[in-house]
Amino acid sequence: MSSENIYILGIESSCDDTAASIIHNGRILSNVVASQKIHEAYGGVVPELASRAHQQNIVPVVHQAIEKAGINKSQLKAIAFTKGPGLMGSLLVGTSFAKSLAYGLNIPLIDVNHMQGHILAHFIDEDGFEKPPFPFLAMTISGGHTQIVKVDNYFEMTVIGETIDDAVGEAFDKSGKILGLGYPAGPEIDKRAALGNPKAFQFTKPKVDGLNFSFSGFKTAVLYFIQREVKANPNFIEENLNDICASIQYTIIGILIDKLKLATKQTGINHIAIGGGVSANSGIRQALKDGEQKFGWITYIPKFEFTTDNAAMIAIVGYLKYLQGNFAEQDVVASARLKI
Ligand code: KG4
Ligand code: ZN
Predict the structure, then answer these.
(1) Given a cut of 60, is residue 2 above it in pLDDT?
(2) Spacing, Cα 307 to ligand 2 middle (Å)
(3) Going edge to edge, which strands form the sheet with 7-12?
(4) Which residue, 154, 285, 331, 340, is the most exposed by fewest CB within 10 angstroms?
(5) Closest listed residue to residue 90, CA positions, set 42, 128, 174, 34
(6) Per residue in 18-69, pLDDT tens?
(7) Is the domain of 109 the same as that of 154?
């Protein structure tokens, strides 16, 4: 690589986090995220409120990212932004902002697929973190997506399995809602699961062929189970909350691990990387590590700050595309259902 200084600004605004990051030759200089608390009161992301909050946050967040990186915006080589998938109103804020800034600075614009970002976050230069070799399998698990992707190269990716209904994060969040937990419930279920018995209650795993997932039946199973138990004992939830959380988490992890086992068998690939908000889950991280002993996997688990939505993952894709000279035109448009 030449000794050129490549500073890339990444902007992420696909859902409810407004984020900006500066990457210098593959290394992070700043990674700023403004999470939108407003949705907690509604038990889920409200799209119209999300785009309004992005509009308020985007200028200060980008400003902070540049300031924290200790650079001047005239040093930027390109601006990378999330083109999709995501909420259209949210995507529009990041897209328009990136376009205007790139135009103003007269530098290239780079469009990034959010899902590729979750996967390629593993290529950020971080001490103590190894990058997966090609080909590898990536499992992206979050509130909006659940996929197993075969990654042959930076931009040669094939989705080999995905959810046919809810995402795995929704299974956590909707189960949490049934239990009266706040939104998003994933982190609290994780904490409580550590204190409970994972085999206290049993939930049947959905039967879905091949590498696809389904979580809507699981959520209904949790609902019926809780309704039945609460009828018999109105204090059932309070008295058993940790055990319920542990059992829910145990079942979800079982579903994910089963599919990964099948994916490694079908592809013959045993390098596995995870990404997305649910990859922050301590039970999943442990199950992956256990897979190294049990199944001979070699696993790549991201730093916590790169699990949930962030702009460093967008900036790293921007950097990789910059090296290839792969730029977007000023008439590029956001795409809510963008595929890998
Ligand atoms: O990637 P992300 O920030 O946004 C989406 O693109 O959806 O993921 C958010 C999801 C939520 O469903 C949240 O409950 C889940 O990630 N999550 C967790 C944990 N931390 C976040 N789920 C289980 N355990 C966690 N520790
Ligand atoms: Zn995401």
Answers:
(1) no
(2) 8
(3) 27-35, 17-24, 7-12, 76-84, 109-113
(4) 331
(5) 34
(6) 999 999 999 999 999 998 888 887 878 888 898 998 999 999 999 999 999 9
(7) no
What pLDDT score was predicted for residue 42?
80
Do 157 and 119 share a domain, yes or no? no
Are 210 and 289 in a shared domain?
A: yes
Give whole-number Cα distances, 121 to 67, 118, 129, 187, 300, in Å: 22, 5, 11, 21, 11
Nearest atom of ligand 1 to the alpha carbon of 307: 1
Q: What domain range includes position 264?
A: 136-301
Neighbour-count burial of 214, counting CB atoms closer than 10 A to its CB (0-12 exposed, 13-18 middle, 19+ buried): middle
* Residue pLDDT, tens place only, 260-283: 999 999 999 999 999 999 999 999
**Domain of residue 100, CATH code:** 3.30.420.40
**Ligand 1, pocket-test mutation among 278, 307, 313, 314, most atoms within 8 A of CB:** 278
63 domain residue, yes or no: yes
Query: What percent of the chain clears pLDDT 70, i.e. is strictly above it?
Result: 99
- Residue 289 confidence (pLDDT) above 90: yes
Q: Considering its fold, how many domains does the chain have in total? A: 2
**340 domain residue, yes or no:** no
Q: Give pLDDT, residue 38.
A: 82
Give the residue, by CA position, lying nearest to ligand 1 atom 22: 186
Residue 280 to residue 299: CA distance in whole angstroms? 14
